[in-house]
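Hi team,

Filling in the usual template for the complex we talked about on Friday. All components are listed, including any nucleic acid strands or ligand strings, so the model treats them as one assembly.

SUBMITTER: L.P.
PURPOSE: interface mapping
COMPONENTS: two
RESIDUES: 1290
SEQUENCES:
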Amino acid sequence: MASKSLYSGRDPVLKKRDDFEDVLEERRNSSDLRYALRCYTPALYKGLVPCKASMLKSIVLQSDSLQYVVGQVSAECGESREAVQEEAALLLEEMAHRLQLGTIRFFAFTLSKAFKALFRGVCVNEEGIQRLQQAIQEHPVVLLPSHRSYMDFLMMSYILYTYDLALPVIAAGMDFISMKFVGEMLRMSGAFFIRRSFGGDKLYWAVFSEYVKTMLRNGYAPIEFFLEGTRSRTGKSLTPKTGLLNIVMEPFFKGEVFDVNLVPVSISYERILEESLYARELLGVPKPKESTSGLLKARRILSEDYGSMHVYFGHPVSIRSLAQGHISRSQHNLLPRHIPQKPTADTQAFVNDTAFRLVRLQEENMVLKPWVLLATLLLQNPDGMDLSTLTEQADWLRRLALAFGAFLDWPDHEPCSKVISSSLALHKNLVCVSGGRVRLVVEELPGAESATEEAGFNRAVSVLSCASYRNQILHLFVRPALIAVAMQTANCSRKDEVFNCFNFLRNVFSNEFILCPGAAVQDFEEACYLLGKCGAVQELQQDLVMSQSGQTTLAFLCSVLDPFLQGYQVVCRYLCEELEENLLENKFVPAVRSFTLQLILSGSLKCYEALSSDLQKNALAALIRLKAVRRVKAGDQVTLKVNKIAVNSLEDTLGKTNVQHINIYLYSSLLNNK
Amino acid sequence: MFLKIIHACKTSKRKVQLSFCCMRSILSLSLSLSLSLSYFFFPFRHDIMKWNGWGYSDSRFLFNKKGQAEFTGKRYRLSGLILPSLKDWFEGTFGANLQHKSPATPALNVSAVPPPNLNESFVEELKAAGVALSQEPEDRVFRSHGHCLHEIFALREGRISRVPDLVVWPSCHNDVVKIVELACKHNVCLIPYGGGTSVSSALECPPEETRSIVSLDTSQMNRILWIDEKNLTAHVEAGIIGQDLERQLNESGYCTGHEPDSMEFSSLGGWVATRASGMKKNIYGNIEDLVVHIKMVTPRGVIEKSCQGPRMSTGPDIHHFIMGSEGTLGVVTEVTMKIRPVPEYQKYGSIVFPNFQQGVACLREVAKQRCAPASIRLMDNEQFQFGHALKPQVSSIFTSFLDGLKKFYITKFKGFDPHHLCVATLLFEGDREKVLQHEKQVYDIAAKFGGLAAGEDNGQRGYMLTFVIAYLRDLGMDYYVIGESFETSVPWDRVLDLCRNVKERIVRECKERGVQFPPLSTCRVTQTYDAGACVYFYFAFNYRGLSDPIHVYENVEHAAREEILANGGSLSHHHGVGKLRKEWMKEAVSTVGLGMLKSVKEYVDPSNIFGNRNLL
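RESULT (copied from the run log):
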């Protein structure tokens, strides 16, 4: 498998990272207007075929590949070629961007004002910018930022403008188009709009893919899209979507370009603007529809402090180098290249591997703030912690995270307590300190009862908001944590036994975390290496043994996974106990939610994270993948058929990991004794 | 007296056409003198050709004391001329320096040549049969190689690997029958040798061969046996060299029109054995279109068709087992070829295009309208500049003024970017009137793609370049620059992508392998077909600072070929496979295809007498 070579021999700890520079600093000291009107002369792709946005459209409409599909569609549906061609032109009109420098300048001015109000700083790695500048000139570039906020793509264009780099064209969801005026503004700043789902629509796909490929082949502009497909509401990276990645790789596979550079970009926020919105969404409050009036209402956020944000431009990844030895480009020799072809299984596997690899690169370069560590600890102590304990444990966790290679932005010159208190102050909407104890802020209800659904909901909002920060560090801990849990469950120190358990858990959670398909062995070795390095585990010939000092670390790692283990069990339990015969798929989430809420209100479940619809959906996807649940399509509706025996046994197996409850106490007591 | 005969033969060189019986008499004479095993006194071409480089000994490029480039000798239009801009181009392109020389070993060190491994009884019977032969080291080394870079590089360094143990010169078809019979009887390995211009390692002796290796040199089978004016065919012995064939036919008012770039030195048999292609194939066709009848001697006997019908439906065409067999099945001895009356009028031409894309689009349109002139070639910008560097010193101020004016018109007035523009060279042939009409048609098409007519002179210089470029490689090798050419054929829609990707791959591979200076990486489209084109690449680099330049070079060439195949190009358009490209044969023709070819070899030559191990 391709993944083998992609992930071998990496030592995340040895990774060298660039320094940051705050782009807002200059904005605070000089005129925004002059900045917005300054001379903008980016370095362009050396093979650029100069062309205007409007010309781009006619190239696409006249292209052989689109003409081919137009002919096909017209033959299939009996409409005239002209009518289908007209339809294609309309689709393209709806989709295409109209990048204009004037609009960019407008945004450069207004966003300068907005960003200065929102953020203390926007830190960018300049070396990454230099690498990008080089890459843009050599080959077509695809920018792949992480997606945590609406801010992301505005910020990307803003930064590229600031550094005099070619402005990207951005694949955006159709949601924005309904926003009067704003949609068109975004279009003029380089956004092009794609429908969220167009599964079987051949014509749409043809227009869309040809549009993207034409821009790529001509070197028109860097193409930007979000591998994760949508904003992650949880702070965890989402399983990548490969549709667009497939499209941008195709010109390379077909020899139409020499190479394509993929540039992963990691955007991290100290405080996410959509923080509580996300938590509510995860609890089933529908996402507010994008609208201009909504945007105007949201301007009150300008008065709040969102700390600083970091944008890290990763090393360009050459598709050519990745594909070397995995993809035979000559497979396209025997068919005219304009005829659309489904990617072969090999190609699909390669694209998939690449997508995972890129998301992992995004994760690795994501800057972690001290607050992430605090959130992690606070969630493990739902009843609050003494500030002193928190400080002590945060320091311990900081060292562990660094040993695992975390990209931690912890001010070295300041005392630990000061770092913590300023972190807590920034997130005062989530935590409060009273009487030397730190606890989560839960919106109080006017009435006094605390065991109501509403109170539970409010607490869940706080927990999930907090979890979205904790989740930012999970990519670092997830592999060692899976080993930690596996060691508990295996009840035996033989390495192969531990690996089996690890592999089982990894399989269950592969919708939840970014775990590259087919890379179980590499993941296991990587995690063993890290655990060995921090002294938690000793690797002997046949065995994997916890070292004396390792108990604290392993217990901590187990409790990192605990909410997920519990959440998945709840879903299993629901499917076994509560399910009526024909559960509609779209009723699944609300049903599990109310089931979970009941468990919480009755006091038999403490884990509020089990209420997250993200977790519930992932669990369902895992069960379907493991063939414990079957989706049955009947007309428009999809029902779920549950194999209760399978689900039950899965729940049992996950239940065996419950030892960690004991361990949590064990580990906190150990920490306190230190 | 014997020495005198040798002397006479040598001075008379190639002009002398010794008759068959005359040679026989000399043979018997020398046998009677029994001086040695060597009968080294034919008017052999190798007396006037370099032993470790391309072409005639008297023709070479050099930088004179003033640092100006000149081309010696009297044979070519460029001979004796000063090329003032070549030095700057050479130093600028390769980062080479005239102070840094890498001269070749001046003469062959005979003691470095391994002693011959002779099959005595074979040699005895051969002598008894009266076949001319030699085991002199010079003769054997001369026939141990083609003109791949690694072959010439090794010779220049004086490194000699496995060479043939014996050279034999059959003088006619029956001699070949005899030699092949004896080779089968005594189990010796035969390697046919024609003009020696192979660039596919086809002439390299397989180092693993333990039998005695005999080089079968066809150069003495060089007569036109008859001309049939009713059917316009000529029956020719396969050892004849291209330029001799054309010259002799011209004397009777005919030509074959087959003009591969190597035609000064390559032989008819070699063309058949490699599926050669000629510059003017648009009028005359490639070798497969030109041959009417082939006679080949194989270990199983002689293969030939029973009539000269112009086309047959008699199962798969057996000629196609022979053409491209690269000496693995037998020796082509006689060929009947189509001939044409010498054309009344020839005219060169050239067109400047603003960029390569436009040029390719124009060629494609010309091919679509099936109005390609005898030859049409499109050089990319690098090659255009290269061609420019080969302009001889202009004699009058007026010419240089005119050149300046042309340049001004094209770059300033027409706005062509001198770093993007490219040139097509053309050759028209036929009736004067038709040629002019044809010319107009082509220039009209060119105009639609932004092409400007750029004069006959540029066109003619373009074609001359193909004959001298091989000499230039020797000059490069004197100054740490090595290079090679290779070719492919590709469908029209992939021409641009393939050219760009292969050129870029070469640049990238050189960089990754530690080549200090960017290489010359350039291409031209040299042939047009209905469904595609032939593309020719040159690549060369300065190897100072590399410990094993040939290894680097081979890796880059390998990568370039991989890139060609990945971009839908063929393994070869006309150079052939030899041993250099053997590894890709299965991929190129499928396992079954390769099996077919193998089973033919198995039947025709079960003991692998023709053991050069090419192709399969």
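MY TAKE: The radius of gyration of chain A is 26 Å. Confidence is low (pLDDT under 50) at residues 1-10, 659-674 of chain A.

Thanks, L.
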